[in-house]
Specification:
Elements: H1 2-24, H2 28-53, H3 59-70, E1 78-83, E2 86-93, H4 94-102, E3 108-124, E4 130-143, E5 149-170, E6 173-191
Amino acid sequence: MRKTSILMAVLFSLLTAFVAKAQDDLSPERKQAIDSLALEKVRDLSKYVSIIGNKSTAWSEANRVIDRAEELFMQDAEIGVSSIARPEVSYYGVRQYFERLMRLNYDRVEIDWFKIEYVSDLQRQPDGTYVGVITIFQKFRGYDKEGNLVYEDTTKKDITVYVKRKETQIGGRIIGFWDVLLGDMRVKETSK
């Protein structure tokens, strides 16, 4: 009788582990939905960058948008800043990056993102998190008071994407879901 109880406990543990692993694996349909969500978050970030960098955006509105933009990122994520005038890349925390963007010394700034696409498929990590990379190209233009173009560059950036399994409680039930957060934005190249 005791051996049967031990055997049942072992089988139950194995079954529980198998079910948990199966829930952590991404079906092709789930992966496609997560890919779409990740790309949508990057597009949202693109809009936030344009709003924050726009000199006509009210200070209070820019700060509200910074708060929203921060929610897209993992804690301690960094964003790279480059220039064609200097070879080194500087990295800033997310909030610091956006606050610097608001204070740029131009009278008008235009920032456009294009060619937003996955370059690295989501790969499962040992802790169950999936990690991928989305590449974007950013066109930056800064103008003076007279409307003359003072500075312009195009930067290729890689954004690390993290997909984690999370749980929330709704109506007394625990519901599992996949959450997508952005990580570091690394500068790959900057050109005129």
